[in-house]
Amino acid sequence: MDPSFPNLETPNLVLREIVDADATDLFRIHGDAEHMKWFGSDPLADIEGARKLVQMFSKWREEPASGTRWGLQLRSTPGLIGTCGLFRWNRNWKTCVVGYEISPLHQGRGYMKEALAAAFTWGFEAMALNRIEAMVHPDNQGSLALLKRFGFAEEGRLRQVGYWAGSHHDLMLHALLKQEWKA
């Protein structure tokens, strides 16, 4: 593990670096086609794809316009239940994009809200962000409701901006400004 990785803790979760040992948990989440239908990429086909995903998330911190992806782990139980991250970081504009997913077994328990609250606070403080953007499929009601609870404003529809599962998809653009953030 990288000692400089920004580990975060919440009452129920540890947000930590994603490591090679997490590949099986990532495959369990990212290999589920039904669950990943809103994620913006095709589901992983095998464990090797999960290992490559671990490496991609690791390299984000080294790239000038990337960001950080945390593994979400329950404080009381080893293993990942999901991930969240701030990426496509534009340091000059002080903006980034948020992405997240959680295993179906852990949905509806408030864990993602808890994780994102910690990530947003860290982003506004440590990354000096002024704006966090989210691009969400218009049919992903759970994600849209989560963003609304945080105060994200809907800014419009990006027509056919995404491509996965063999077709183009519209995404809704939402944003949260630092001045609107209430930790």
TrEMBL record:
Gene3D superfamilies noted in UniProt: 3.40.630.30
GO terms, molecular function: protein-N-terminal-alanine acetyltransferase activity
Any GO CC annotation of this UniProt entry: cytoplasm
This protein's record includes keyword Transcription: no
SUPFAM superfamilies in alphabetical order: Acyl-CoA N-acyltransferases (Nat) (SSF55729)
N-acetyltransferase domain mapped to chain residues: 13-177
Assigned keywords, A-Z: Transferase
Transferase in keyword set: yes
PANTHER family (alphabetical): GNAT FAMILY, PUTATIVE (AFU_ORTHOLOGUE AFUA_3G00765)-RELATED-RELATED, RIBOSOMAL-PROTEIN-ALANINE ACETYLTRANSFERASE
Name listed for the protein in its UniProt record: GNAT family N-acetyltransferase
Organism: Caenimonas sedimenti
